[in-house]
Amino acid sequence: MLLVLAIPGVIVLVVFHYLPLLGNVIAFQDYQPFLGIRGSDFVGLSNFSVILDGDPEFLNALVNTLIITMVQVLFVFPLPIALALVLNSMLNERAKRLTQSILYLPHFLSWVIVVALFQQMLGNGGMLNEWLRSADLGTFQIIGVPELFKLLITSQVIWKDTGWSTIIFLAALSKVDLNLYEAAAIDRAGPLRQLWHVTLPAIRPVIVLLLILRLGDSLTVGFEQILLQQGPVGAQASEVLDTYVYNNGIIGGNWGVSAAVGLVKGIVGVVLVLGANRLAHAMGERGVYSK
C-alpha cells in the first residue's frame, strides 16, 4: 500500500524532473526553437567555450554566485539552528507557538511582495529615509547601491526563510532524550555545557544532512529574487549563473550556451553532494545516504 501511495509522487518526479534532463542535448547544438531538437545542427562542445575560454560575463556571474553562496552559507545557514535553540528553550508553550507562527509568515510571501516591502522600507522614498528627512538626519541609500546588493539580498533571505527553516531543527530537538539533560545536570553541567555536549550532538546528523543538500544547491542563489532587483544595480553587481542563463537564453536567444552553463552547474552540484557525502561518512555521519 505504501508503494501504491508513492506512485503519484514518483510520476511527478519523473515527468517534471527526470524527463526534462533529456533537453540538455541542446547544450551540444546550435538550437533554434522553430527547428526543434531534431532540426538543430550539432556543434559539439563549442557552446562550452564561454566556460573554457573564460568569457568575462560568465566569469562575472560565476564570481557573484560564489560570493553570495559563501555569504549565505556563513550567515544564513546557522541562523535557523540558533533560532530553533532559542525557541526550544522557551518554557511558555503559548508564547512559543505564537512566536513560531509569526516567524513562519514571511515564508509564504512571494519574492515580488518581499522585494516591494524592502523597497517601501529602505528605498530612497521609503519609510526609513522619510523618517530621517523629517528628523533632519539626511538619507541613507541602500536600494540600488551595487556595493550593498549582496548584503541586501542576504538580509531578505534571512527575513523570509529563517523562521521556516527552524521547523526541521525543532523536530530534531523534540527527539532529544530528556534523561540526557538530567544526567548532565547531575554531573554539574551548566546550560552551555548541556548545549555543547547534549543538544548539538543530538541534532548534528540533521545539520550535516542539510549542509550537504545546501552545498548541492550552492550555485543556485535565488533567480526570481535577484532578477526583480537587477535593473537598478546593473549586471556587474547582480548577475549570477541563473540570471546569466535566463538573459542569454530566453532574452538573448543563445539557447545552446545557456543550456551548456546550466548543465555544468548541475554537474558541479552533483559532484559537491557526492564529495560532501563521502566526507560525512569519513566523519562518522550518515549523510544523505549510508554506505
UniProtKB/TrEMBL annotation:
It comes from the Bacteria. It holds the Pfam family BPD_transp_1. InterPro entries: MetI-like, MetI-like_sf, UgpAE/MalFG_permease. The chain crosses the membrane at residues 66-90, 102-122, 255-276. One of its GO terms (biological process) is transmembrane transport. Belongs to the binding-protein-dependent transport system permease family. This is Sugar ABC transporter permease. It comes from Kribbella turkmenica.
